[in-house]
Amino acid sequence: MNKKNTVISIASLICVALFPCFFLYLQNTGAAIFSDLIEMSGILLLISLIILGFSFLIFRNIEKAALISNIFLIIGLYFAFIEKAIVKVIPMLYYWHVAIICLFLIFQIGYLIYKKSTAKLANQINQVFLLIFGGLIIFNGILAVPKAFQTIATKAQNQAELDQKINNPTSDNQERNLPNVYYFIFDEYAGFDSIQRYCNYDNSAFYDALEELGFVTSKHSVNDTTDTLTEITNLLQLSKVNSIEMTAAEKRANLKDPYLFRLMKEHGYTINALDSNNYEFIDINSADMHLSIEFVSTYGTFKSSIIQNTAYYPFYGSEDREVEISNLLNMFNYAVESSKKAQSNLFTIGYFNFPHVPFLFDEQGNKTKDSDRLNLRDTAPYLAQFKYANKKILEMATEIIANDPEAIIIIQSDHGYRYPTHLQFWYGINQFDVEEEAPYMRNILNAVYYQGEDIYIDNYSGINTLITVLNKLLDVDLQMVN
Amino acid sequence: MKKTDKIIYWVITVSFVLLFVFANNIVLSIPLKETYRLEEVESTKYDEYKRDFEAKIETFYVKQDIFFTTEFSGYAFIPTNQASPNKDINLVFISENKSYEVDASVIEWFFLKSMFREKGLVGINHFFITRFSPIEMENGIYELFIYCYENENTIGFMDTNRYFEKTYRTFKEVKK
Question: Is the pLDDT of residue A296 over 50?
């Protein structure tokens, strides 16, 4: 076996296998994550070696085995493009027809290589593959170098600034250490009256457990609307900048640079944000640090960008729900871990798309059936997830208080359970008089732990509760809103 | 070329050709979770049961997967004096040339009871959902009918007046 030819054969295979990963990574320097590159490269290399191993068993020649493996890989990695082209010409063909055509093509080429090709010719073709794919990797690498240096420098600078902020708060107003503050918003968590009305569920045990931990709760609090974009923006701006009549774009524009963040920063707080990437209600650019959720869905990730072009694409994505579950649980973990980050002056704010649809959990925290995932028609999936939310909220609050007893924790929802409008909007069922039901749908979760002290929030809206806490904590005089 | 090599070559080649020709049937015969298979039927199969009853298609959705998985949900019931433990709901698509039937899962849905209180609705198993691949349907425009079996004396077959066009790569609702 010629050593040089063996190296060329294997190198060509490696370049063909790794090109999609490196191309995507280098095109997205700074945004893509190195560990993604390593993971996907590892998977593709392993697949390539398995194909090479099988081919070698048949051909008993490394050059020929590498050549057919290269062809197999190219077809497999760019299958979606081949499928689109074939289907455009012959629309009656489906994925499986194209897969059979490709496999047949590989078989015919393999047969030709086996019978007609010499090792020398196979090696020459492998050299061409090596030159093309290796050359493209190097070319893209050279183009990405300046951007990579810039990204590394920026990251180092940001990290240094963040460390300094946490360890040495520098605000002019900061003359004393202020307790860490945790503010969590749970989307569509029904208030006491809301869950009672639509699910006939008495949530007293949850409120009792919160009160035992030292929370003050308000069972009958309501917000102004049932619109998340309106409510969260108003909470973060501490005034009614949004109204229900505004367009979504106008409302979203008001999410930028929230007054709450500015106020906390003025008082020496470092902002620590966690948000699910799907909605981006929290302006993480205004925060000092945030939880980075890489995989909100299989779509739009590094891995999916590569797999969507391969022959494997129809089978990819079934683990979406596992990723969603893991992201949500990571958010709870991150919230708890945040209580170990700093002794004081850390403001952790989190938006949880929970127990809002998708219904991922039953009440024990097990994965739900596929048919329940988006089932807004029945109350059972919501109630099950709601009960699991109770468990996770209590666990989180208990651990934060254990780690940080001087903390201030505000737990709210943006609105209650919107069952009547779900029926009307999604299923065209006018089961309820929506106007009459509005107070129940606007009934929110509203609970405050102020170092175990009493604080009056009874019947306050979310925004007025927040203002009450901030006035007491920061010794400011924010006006309550009507 | 050795004789055995030739035989292997032709066996594999012919296998590919056969696989290609019967690919749709082979793939669609794989049982998929929560998915039914269409069955070709005579367009007159349920003519004797033609009557109006309460039925509605509530959702229609085509998933962008390789099977173009199509989901219909809704409700159907014929008033009866007693509950229908053996209730059966099928969707039937009828075009000028071909007709297909697909089974549906009957689901208990409590709120229908209050929606149709005045009609004396008995039981709560009147909701249905079905998923199937329309790939094996012949291209054309189909009218959707609902077959509803409550018990052996109460059976109905109703035109929904909704039309669906099947092409090689789409299955969509159309106006007629």
Answer: no
Residues of B in contact with A428 (CB under 8 A): 58
**What share of chain A in percent tops pLDDT 90?**
66
pLDDT in tens, B38-93: 999 999 999 999 999 999 998 888 877 899 999 998 999 998 888 888 999 999 99
- Residue B125 bridge partners (DSSP): none
Residue A186 has φ and ψ, to the nearest 5°, of -110, 115
Q: Which residues pair with A202 in a beta bridge?
A: none
* B residues 37..66 contacting A (CB < 8 A): 58-59, 65-66
Identify the bridge partners of residue B39 per DSSP, sorted by sequence position: B101
Asked whether the predicted pLDDT for residue A257 surpasses 50, the reply is yes
Query: How many Cβ atoms from other residues are within 10 Å of residue A80's Cβ?
Result: 18
Give the single-character DSSP code of A133.
Answer: I
Helix or strand run (H / E) with residue A7:
helix A3-27
Which pLDDT belongs to residue B111?
64
Going by C-alpha positions, the residue among A265, A268, A272 that lies closest to residue A287 is A272
Is B124 part of the contact surface with chain A (CB cutoff 8 Å)? no
> Which residues of B fall within a CB distance of 8 Å from A95?
66
Token pair of B36 as six digits: 């039914």
A53-92 pLDDT, tens digit per residue, is 999 999 999 999 999 999 999 999 999 999 999 999 999 9
Question: Whole-angstrom Cα distance, residue A278 to residue B142?
Answer: 38
H or E element in which residue A425 lies: helix A419-427
Share of chain B above pLDDT 90, in %: 66
Computed from CA positions of residues A457, A458, A460, A463, in that sequence, does the dihedral angle turn out positive or negative?
Answer: positive
Give the ranges where A90-240 is alpha helix by DSSP (H). Answer: 95-115, 119-129, 135-167, 192-199, 204-213, 228-237
Residues facing B104 on adjacent strands: B89
In chain B, residues with a C-beta closer than 8 Å to the C-beta of A101 are: 20
Q: Give the end-to-end CA distance of chain A in Å, rounded to a whole number.
A: 85
Counting Cα atoms < 13 Å in the Cβ hemisphere of B13 gives: 10
Contact criterion met (CB below 8 Å) for A21 and A40: yes
- ipTM, 2 dp: 0.89
Which sign, positive or negative, has the C-alpha torsion B37, B43, B48, B54? positive
Are A111 and B115 in contact (CB < 8 Å)?
no
Which of B23, B33, B65 is closest, CB to CB, to A100? B23
By CB atoms closer than 10 A (0-12, 13-18, 19+), residue A342 is buried
* pLDDT above 80 (res A406): yes
Q: What is the mean pLDDT of residues A119-131?
A: 94
Q: CA B89 to CA B146: how far, in whole Å?
A: 7
Full 3-state SS string of chain B: CCHHHHHHHHHHHHHHHHHHHCHHHHHHCCCCCCCECCEECCCCCCHHHECCCEEEEEEEEECCCCCCCEEEEEEEECCCCCCCCCCEEEEEEECCCCEEEEEEEEECCCHHHHHCHHHCCCCCCCEEEEEECHHHCCCEEEEEEEEEEEECCEEEEEEEEEEEEECCCCEEEECC
Lookup: tokens for A235: 């909470």
